[in-house]
Fold this protein.
Amino acid sequence: MSIPDLRKLHAFVTVVEQGSISAAAERLFIQQPPLSRLLQGLEADFGVALLYRQPRGVVPTDAGKVLLEESRELLARADRLEAAMQRAAQGKQGSITIGFTSSSALHAFVPELLRRYRELYPSVTTLLEEAGSGELLQAVVAQRVDVAFVRMPVHGMPELTVERVLQEPMRVALPARHPLAGLPPDEPISLKLLANESFVLYRRPAGQGLYDAILAACFRAGFSPKIVQEAPRLTSCLSLVGAGLGVSIVPESMTRLGGEGMVFLKLSPQAQLSAPLYLARREDVRSSAIINAFCRLVKAKLAGD
């Protein structure tokens, strides 16, 4: 047998609850003959009698009592399903995977954004993925990640839409015993002062944007940096700096991880060195209500809302 439509079940439940076909017809805003035909069709669907017709109304048969209980549950589930579809269409239900680099997670903007997103969209399951910029961009292309905060601009990836979120200054990270560590922390230094230093940098494949920006700034300052160690994460760079292996240049937000083993100095504006933060997503997901809602929140937070 075919599954009866919800309209018939709703009519049956209303008739039983009202105890009368005439009262149910008035409640449903239809005439009695069409309602009677709906009930007859429902009984034909199941091949059993569902109602006892009495002089003063109707009562359910044993089969009707079972159908009444099941119908109420099914109709309630249908209502919940409709509400869930409406929430999904508004970006309020479902899941989203958000990627971020270790340095972007340290910037106050990103954790505050995630906190606010969870407040506004509690029914959306938020999955977080940490990796390097290059890895995250590939993950977005492969649809393993929906949106990603990365440090590098994108070239040759037409599948992606990448928007700049913010720009933060970069700082020189020095071992605490370095000769330059005694300079006033608020006094900007020239990049040329680092010409003879050993550098510890974030590995290029993982952090191409920052790596290339640092090299370009050094070249503009008249020297090629001597790179003695490349680390897999910016956090690893700081550990190596603290151990005295060399100096590094990191986004300002990384100074939150600084300990007693290192100091951070400002760079002069002439260095023209800053750390951008981008938000990447696939070009073809503009129809995703969840991703669109997240991107709208990013813009609202940037606007100060």
About this structure: The chain has ten helices and eleven strands. The longest helix spans residues 62-89. Residues 248 and 254 are 11 Å apart (CA to CA). The mean pLDDT is 87.
